[in-house]
């Protein structure tokens, strides 16, 4: 379903030509981050020019799970209605599975009087089109299809962009501030940050149709061998399946090797309720793959330019935290820019926005650290200490109460506190060591316990 109309675009391009010709902000990209920022700044009265490579509805296999913390940011931005009319499914938590056992972990939502506060699963493209449509309805916003070729720099200051229109015409657009939100494949980030992209694994993606999850309206995480498998609803009759495969390569689709791997290895580790739909999805052949990228935010302070979204900061998508981080960043940036009458002093603005990189850290570092560390913990290993940590984490979360509420509040973006994250990680380690010492400690168990603590220290230090 396409909610964004080309006719609306055409009307937007010709209205208020004077304002469109002198934008205050250029936004490169109209994905989740770009569209949300477009609306947020436009709603504040800023003149905004957005240049997006393709304004057709995207068809992606990630960006489909919005955590409750992200939904709260949508409310603050005035975009919560963008998850309506797209068959989005409420998500109330997770269920984790290991060796035939399962445990339900619910989001701590009782404190919210608004019953709509929950996670959401949806088709990424439908969500983006709703936001584009809403942004394009503002009279001071111009949304244009085109490809940005390069940033326009003068004496170390970004003055705008060089781009090609959909008709191939090369143009230049000027603005005091250019925000680059062109996603994980960004070709502009190299001049704005230290881009150290890591690819720890790949996702193999399918859509399961007309099946019921063991726990309705919950994401499902299977602690499989060699790494996790995810299931979550994206519409009233569709469930997204993501199979993680470590490394940068997956078995070939064309030779049937991947389908055989899914049938012979993966299908044996999923809940029985999903088996038939899983096999049916494989046989339909609509299997897609994508690399999972991770990249810490390491920006170069650049007058006149700023990075946002996946162009700026990426984490393993296991925890579905990307949109929550992006929306949190956008809300923060909007609030920082709101009291400024003019953006014309690029050097002063660059200095002022240094606070953005400090203020974003509690949310971003909590979700990024959790994503990277949980992926390591939830993956199988030949290291006995790593496997003990994996089992300890599953059993710790299965205790319920404060033992599950704390971690799930961190994951959901409802409690973005890095210190709490560290405390829970070490609580898991202590819990695991305590079990190893029962009924009596032995040299082997003491050594494994010491290794377990060491592994946990390395994981937390690696991502914080």
Provide an overview of this structure.
With 464 residues, the protein is an alpha/beta fold. The chain has a seven-stranded mixed beta sheet with strand order 10-9-8-2-1-11-17. The protein has a seven-stranded mixed beta sheet with strand order 6-5-13-14-15-12-16, with helices on both faces. Residues 1-20 have low confidence and may be disordered. It has three domains: 6-59 and 126-195 and 296-344, FAD/NAD(P)-binding domain (3-Layer(bba) Sandwich), CATH 3.50.50.60; 198-293, D-Amino Acid Oxidase, Chain A, domain 2; 363-463, no CATH class. It has helices at residues 6-14, 17-21, 32-43, 68-77, 124-136, 257-266, 275-284, 322-337, 346-352, 354-359, 361-378, 384-398, 402-411, 418-436, 443-463; strands at residues 25-28, 48-52, 65-66, 89-91, 93-98, 101-106, 119-121, 141-154, 157-165, 170-174, 177-180, 198-209, 219-222, 229-235, 238-246, 288-294, 305-307. The chain contains 15 helices and 17 strands. The longest helix is centred in the last third of the chain and has 21 residues, at 443-463. Helix 3 links the parallel strand 1 and strand 2 (48-52). It is found in: Membrane. Its EC number is 1.14.14.17. It is a multi-pass membrane protein. Its cofactor is FAD. Residues 174-447 form the Squalene epoxidase domain.
Residue-averaged pLDDT: 90
Domains (count): 3
| CATH secondary-structure class of the largest domain | Alpha Beta
**Helical percentage:** 25-40%
Kindly identify the CATH topology of the largest domain.
Answer: FAD/NAD(P)-binding domain
Strand proportion, as a percent range, falls in: 15-25%
Shape: globular
Low-confidence stretches: 1-20
The largest beta-sheet arranges its strands as 10-9-8-2-1-11-17
Largest β-sheet summary: 7 strands, mixed
**Quaternary structure state of the chains depicted:** single chain
């Amino acid at each position: 379903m396409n909610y964004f109309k080309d006719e609306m675009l055409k009307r937007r391009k010709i209205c208020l030509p004077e304002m469109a010709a002198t934008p205050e902000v250029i936004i490169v990209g109209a994905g989740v981050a770009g569209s949300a920022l477009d609306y947020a700044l436009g709603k504040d009265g800023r003149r905004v020019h957005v240049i997006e490579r393709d304004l057709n509805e995207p068809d992606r296999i990630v960006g489909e799970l919005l955590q409750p913390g992200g939904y709260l940011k949508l409310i603050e931005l005035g975009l919560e209605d963008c998850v309506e009319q797209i068959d989005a499914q409420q998500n109330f938590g997770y269920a984790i599975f290991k060796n035939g056992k399962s445990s339900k972990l619910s989001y701590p939502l009782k404190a919210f009087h608004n019953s709509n506060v929950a996670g959401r699963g949806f088709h990424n493209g439908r969500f983006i089109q709703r936001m584009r449509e809403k942004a394009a309805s503002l009279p001071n916003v111009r949304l244009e299809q085109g490809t940005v070729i390069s940033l326009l720099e003068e004496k170390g200051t970004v003055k705008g962009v060089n781009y090609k229109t959909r008709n191939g015409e090369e143009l230049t657009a000027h603005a005091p501030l250019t925000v680059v939100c062109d996603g994980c494949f960004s070709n502009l980030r190299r001049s704005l940050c230290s881009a150290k992209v890591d690819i720890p694994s790949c996702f193999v993606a399918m859509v399961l149709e007309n099946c019921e999850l063991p726990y309705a309206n919950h994401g499902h995480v299977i602690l499989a061998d060699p790494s996790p498998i995810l299931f979550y609803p994206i519409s009233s009759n569709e469930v997204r399946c993501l199979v993680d495969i470590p490394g940068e390569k997956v078995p070939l689709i064309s030779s049937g090797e991947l389908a055989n791997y899914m049938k012979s290895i993966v299908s044996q580790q999923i809940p029985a309720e999903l088996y038939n739909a899983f096999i049916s999805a494989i046989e339909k052949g609509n299997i897609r793959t994508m690399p999972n990228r991770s990249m810490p935010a390491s920006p170069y302070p650049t007058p006149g330019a700023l990075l946002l979204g996946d162009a700026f900061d990426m984490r393993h998508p296991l925890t579905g935290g990307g949109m929550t981080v992006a929306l949190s960043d956008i809300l923060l940036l909007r609030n920082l820019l709101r009291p400024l009458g003019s953006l014309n002093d690029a050097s002063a603005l660059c200095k002022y926005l240094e606070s953005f990189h400090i203020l974003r850290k509690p949310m971003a570092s909590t979700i990024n650290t959790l994503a990277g560390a949980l992926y390591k913990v939830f993956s199988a290993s030949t290291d006995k200490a790593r496997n003990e940590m994996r089992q300890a984490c599953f059993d710790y979360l299965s205790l319920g109460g404060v033992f599950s509420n704390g971690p799930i509040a961190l994951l959901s973006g409802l409690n973005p506190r890095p210190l709490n994250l560290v405390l829970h990680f070490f609580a898991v380690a202590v819990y695991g060591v305590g079990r190893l010492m029962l009924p009596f400690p032995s040299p082997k168990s003491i050594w494994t316990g010491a290794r377990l603590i060491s592994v946990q220290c390395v994981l937390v230090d690696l991502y914080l």
